[in-house]
Amino acid sequence: MSAAIEVAPVRRNAFLAGLIRLIREKPLGAIGLAIVLVFLVCGIFADVIAPYGINQISPVNRLKPPSARFWFGTDHLGRDMFSRILYGAQLSVIIGLSAATLATLISVTLGIVSGYFGGRIDMLVQRVVDAWMSFPELIILIVVVSVVGPGMFQVIGILGLTFGIGGSRIIRGAVVSVRENMYIHATQSMGATTTRVLLRHILPNIMAPVLVLFSTRVGAVILVESGLSFLGFGVPPPAPTWGGMLSGSGRTYMYLAPWLALAPGLCLTCVVYGINMLGDALRDLLDPRMRGSR
Amino acid sequence: MSETPLLEVDNIKVHFPIYKGVIARQVGAVKAVDGVSFSVNRGETLGLVGESGCGKSTTGLAVLRMLSTTAGTIRFDGTDITHLSRAALRPFRRRIQMIYQDPFGALDPRMTVGQLIAEPMIVHNIEPNRAARDTRARDLLSMVGLRQDMAERYIHEFSGGQRQRIGIARALAMQPDLLICDEPVSALDVSIQAQIVNLFQDLQARFGLTYLFIAHDLAVIRHISDRIAVMYLGRIVEIAGREALYDHPKHPYTQALLAAVAIPDPDIEATRPHITVTGEVPSALNPPPGCRFHPRCPLAIDRCRTEEPQLRDMSNGQSVACHLA
Ligand SMILES: Nc1ncnc2c1ncn2[C@@H]1O[C@H](COP(=O)(O)OP(=O)(O)OP(=O)(O)O)[C@@H](O)[C@H]1O
Ligand SMILES: [Mg+2]
Questions:
Q1: Which of A50, A129, B174, B194 has its CA 20 to 30 A from that of B276?
Q2: How many CB atoms lie within 10 A of CB B222?
Q3: ipTM score of the complex?
Q4: What is the CATH number for A169?
């Protein structure tokens, strides 16, 4: 029997079994996963789902409250908020997830290198982190944007890098404490390679802070992106990001048409909440000591 | 070939430097191990006893090459491994294994028992096939007296004695020659201790293992050791066969150690010397000149304060580092 034939079904079963465990043992986490999936699907299929175009202006329907026709109301230009939220999900969720993923990868890499190897490498990495963190991220972003122009990839790259370098401190701390465990010593003394020690022992044992870091970063990135969009350094309008909607028309018409701020605000809250719950559930499920607990 | 000892430790020193100040100037060193020599023959158990902090663990870690030695040589199966590179050391990393005092800490909580036992086989490419590895892991579990289906469980689900058995199974997976057991039973219940000690003996008989067995419990050491080395403040003060050491200890420190425990045989109990020591163990940072034991020794003479005694062979393999012996 070849290894490939054996492995595939095992993998799929493990995934299914994991999903079943998530639903059974961590119902809140399953709800979080469902929320994230709903927003992802909405974002990906926005073109199909959205009843109106993003920039389809209708002057007669300006600032209409939510109704059967316009689920989330309309804004000051008569654009359908529901459609804009859907397209916004595309941008905000993509930016949030990719920048948070990038940030987590950078944090984990820097944190592990710095925390595990220690000594001079640690010293060097930590001074670079200090130097980077002493620049406000806004300045870096302005410089980059003025060189290459505004856009989604610039935002993902800069936010990923900034949050990643900042978060590396947390991972480094976790690595330093895991490294002191006797099982690391035992694995080294039996002749395991450094790669094995890092990937098979250090990484699984720092998964708790890694997941927490990731899930908090998604929300943070979406929020910071809204600030950047507000200043004109984010994804340029008229692209509908949630942050842009919140800080743009949402703030201007807060009293006249509160749905303009409520719709993107609530969506943002839901996504961040969903990701945090999913992250917490995963953290517990991945810890064998938490087996069977709620 | 089998005439040469499996492990020969020759005058090793392990000093931990102490730094102070902003420019990290070295202001001294903890002389945790300061000139220790012994050898262990194939299939033999050498017990290593001494008070807390005398350098037993440090000696074990130096042999395991997990600490760099300041001086001296460690020869394993005829090869000088003291300064071998990482790559050259790899085969020896398989052949020398450590059993830890706290098996819970020494086993990764995120791995199943099966994975823990299979890991060394992957590292040393002992069993490239995954199914065969699993089978062997299960066999090893039965070998150490556990059920095969325990392979699926995690380490926190086991008792202390079971964890130590798992630690032993993991070490055995590498088919080692030498096990360095650093107080492997001292964290366990007395009733469990006996079981684990017996397991060590069974495995030794079965696989011809060699043990460097570190402990501070003299009853355990007596039960398992063929020969015993007594350490005091980074040095070996006496090394002898089990019977010789327990029946006629020659070093005042050994006598004091043994005096602290009652001997069940009344004849020996009545005739053996009863020495008591007072005071504290001096600091390994600044060991006393001459014999390190002299400040606490009731028999010390002037010579002990100035001249450091060397290990001298007395008779039938009993060596003592004492001017008065
Ligand atoms: N990494 C280190 N840095 C500095 N000093 C150390 C280090 N490791 C051990 N020491 C010192 O070396 C001496 C010997 O320690 P060691 O752990 O070998 O003692 P031990 O005989 O195993 O004691 P125990 O019975 O308590 O386990 C002690 O004084 C200890 O404080
Ligand atoms: Mg010790």
A1: B194
A2: 19
A3: 0.88
A4: 1.10.3720.10
